[in-house]
TrEMBL record:
It comes from Halocarpus bidwillii. SUPFAM superfamilies: Subunit VIII of photosystem I reaction centre, PsaI. The chain crosses the membrane at residues 6-29. This is Photosystem I reaction center subunit VIII. May help in the organization of the PsaL subunit. It is found in: Plastid, Chloroplast thylakoid membrane. The keyword Cell inner membrane does not apply. The lineage of its organism: Eukaryota, Viridiplantae, Streptophyta, Embryophyta, Tracheophyta. One of its GO terms (cellular component) is photosystem I.
Amino acid sequence: MPNILPSIFVPLVGLFLPALTMALLYFYIQNDDIF
């Protein structure tokens, strides 16, 4: 079980972290255009 967990967790973070960063940048740019 401990060997299976990182193989699921690492790609999940690898996909989630850039998606979160792009989402925050997108909302920041959208708010910047409004003001």
